[in-house]
Write a structure and sequence with these properties.
This protein is of the alpha+beta class. Helix content is about 55%, strand content about 20%. The chain contains seven helices and three strands.
Amino acid sequence: MPAEAVRQLLSALDYAPLLMNPDALAEQIASEVEGISGDDISDIIWSLLSVYSLREELGLSTSDVTEQIGRAMQESRSEKLKLTDKYRTQLEERLVALLSSGRLDLMGKASALTLEQERFMSEARIVTDVRPIFGSDPASRPSGAVIVHTLKLTYKEGDNQRKDFYIAMDAVDLRNLQESIERAEKKVVSTKSMLEAANVPFIDLK
């Protein structure tokens, strides 16, 4: 990247909204950075957050982790990754500058806290079906029917494997679930107001 593009990226990150999703963040700042596409900015932010996680996990300083990355690339057998002394120095300087961004540091720590979970929800779906009730003669017309719902939760575990969990629900369960979601959304609004009043930045996970 040209040096000016790096400078613009750093400047844009300093004033960027606190969004946890790198794709959403890249979309917000892409117009402020010339010479780097939105997709590339997203890839850069994803990579930087990975380095943040590595730094925290290994307990390294920013200079130590950038030096190790530079050395690994310089000694790489891949021609695409291998760096000369000049470009290794440039890479490490730019990494230090990018990793010193207060915004990304906050996002990196927030991401680490968010990942401190046993399971992560991937998607949810409610399947509704009608189940007929038959009398003593199953060949006769059903004497009634019930409507049942099945809540399917797809989640990922620590090994990143996708798994499904099914829960049977009736109309009362649906109402209770809806009320719980509405209550949680109200908690988000009131908690955000409290954080704003205390001048504590809120990191949006969307």
